[in-house]
Amino acid sequence: MTRVLVAALTVVTLSAQTQTPATPPAAPDAACPEMASALTRLMNNDVRLRDWANLARYREMNRSLAAPAAGEARVVFMGDSITDAWSNQARFGPFFPGKPYVGRGISGQTTPQMLIRFRPDVIDLKPKAVVILAGTNDIAGNTGVMTDQDIEGNIASMAELAKAHNIKVILSSIMPTAAYHAAPNAVPQSTTRPMSRIKAVNAWMERYAAANGHIYLDYFTPMLDATGLMKAELTADDLHPNAAGYAIMAPLAQAAIDRALR
Questions:
Q1: E-state strands within 44-128
Q2: Total-model pTM
Q3: How confident is the model at residue 87 (pLDDT cuts 50, 70, 90)?
């Protein structure tokens, strides 16, 4: 197993150096799931290193998206998996039907990744407003340890870029988490994404929005139960909203957009 992992590491290293796709190593024997899992992670990391911010995800969609029509109030939703999944009509129904709204969420992303793709995925689409929902994956450490100040700085940078291009800014609160659906021996979402940190960043975000003429969109408060966690009926995994959760979020988002564009 050690020899196979060393070979896989060599393939990944050479691929990262040449910036060309590497030929994956031969699939390991199915009787060794740990080896298969390790190789899969290595190859996924190779892809991630070659396009860390996943700029390729929406590149063709952005190119084919027509410029806004005269008088059209295009709105871009920038975010992570919560934004990414929202436009999945098979699971959650139409995404703001009849509205010229564009989803640009990518599952698992953190604020530094979103900041890198903010120009192609937001500014270049020439929206009237942007709805930014970000920060939970930073707290979880998806791309390394991030302080609250790191998160806040990246959100502020996105807001400053938008403002410089006459795009109205709507800053969405980080969603609450819970521990109701955690599998046995699994670390609960409320541990990997502590509510204390979520509240701290949300409080900063609300102050920052007020001080800079932006809109603060509070998803957090309406989704809390009596214990101060995310309502169990609004999520299947204590992190992502289900259809009932999105049903709460949609009118709140629309009201915030209306305020921003008024």
A1: 75-79, 101-105
A2: 0.82
A3: confident
